[in-house]
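This part of the workshop introduces the protein records we will be handling. Getting from the letters to the tokens is the skill we practise here. An example says more than a description, so a record of this kind follows:
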Amino acid sequence: MQIEPAQRLEGAIEVPGDKSISHRYGILGAMATGHTSITGFSTSKDCWSTLACVERLGCSVRKVGDDVEIESDGWRAVKSPEQSLDAGNSGTTIRLLSALLSSASIKTTIAGDESLNRRPMARIVEPLTRMGARIVARDGKFPPLAIDGTQLAPICYELPVASAQVKSCVLLAGLTASGKTTVIEKTQSRDHTERVLPVFGVRFEKVGTELSVWGPSEPRGTQVHVPGDISSAIYFIVAALLIPGSQLRINNLGVNPTRSGLLTLLRNSGARISLENQREVSSEPWADVTVRYDASFLENFPERIEGSWIPNLIDEIPILAVLGTRLKNGLQIGDAAELRHKESDRIQSIVQNLSALGIEIEEYPDGFAIPPGQQLRGGTIRTFGDHRIAMSFAIAGLISQDGIEIDEPACADISFPGFFDLLNLVSRTASPS
């Protein structure tokens, strides 16, 4: 696919439902008793992997467009699937669903595609094992995970690193244990699980850095609504900020503060981004977001991002790297070693592709540095099968001198089916071919 430089972006759009939220609503719908209605469910392949697993565990799943209906008899009643569960490319699916599988009275195996099966699972295996789970991982840390469900015990667990997936896994497992389960989170990660637990009728408490649930709990089916995915919208936001003459509106967007770190950094730097019609739906903050071109923020954007910022914008670092090529002071990323264990080694993927487009960049074990004063040329980039690399470098093509060619654009469907069609719709000259 060829992406040509754009003259401007304009229009009003909506992006698919939030992936992280959709996963959690789907799994809680399976754990709850009764009927759960989810509107705006993500169209991503990852989230459909979660629903396919839920269905194979005996829940009734009905899909109509981006609405999903789940009927379940609760977490105690899940059934043994005839074959192993397939999480596809979704780390969230395998890590969160392992909480349910560990407590169910069944034996299961869950794995994914080649990429997922290379991703470490020790972060969830360790706390689940402390709760009494019986899990056998390949080489002690990789999928497939063979899980022999049993009665779990509550624990108090301090997260060794900030991880929303590990936090959510332990809290969901705690719903099935007898007593109080507490997760201590010193650096806050995305909080979608904590927000929605009370919506499903679960007792949840936060005191300082301690997050607690009580079990055994009986979540109740309910109606929930999924906002647009900020991690999908950020590609369009960055493009509109960088391409002269652009004005773009993104409606019904999730603006959860634990997910919108890059949006916050941009606004704090003076980017022309306005939030309108702000409201709360299903305990999540929503807004309509308007973005207007204004290059002045490029002088004020932080030149180094590390520490507590990283968990908040970990998914946005690939597009942040593209933005970094335009920043007046350059960009340094640190404390982001987790990027090496995503769908690709994203640090290496970023470095190789920016280098191929003529950008000087230095690679570190936990990040990279981009010196100021550079210009993206043209060239061919490799996605490494990683959806966020594909979408980020599509934006690089829009702001490049000569356009770029993407080797495997279809991998964007993992999180954002129709991404290139929507990009073509709002861009005057970006014409994928």
About this structure: The chain has 13 helices and 23 strands. The mean pLDDT is 95. The two ends are 5 Å apart (CA to CA). The longest strand covers residues 272-281.
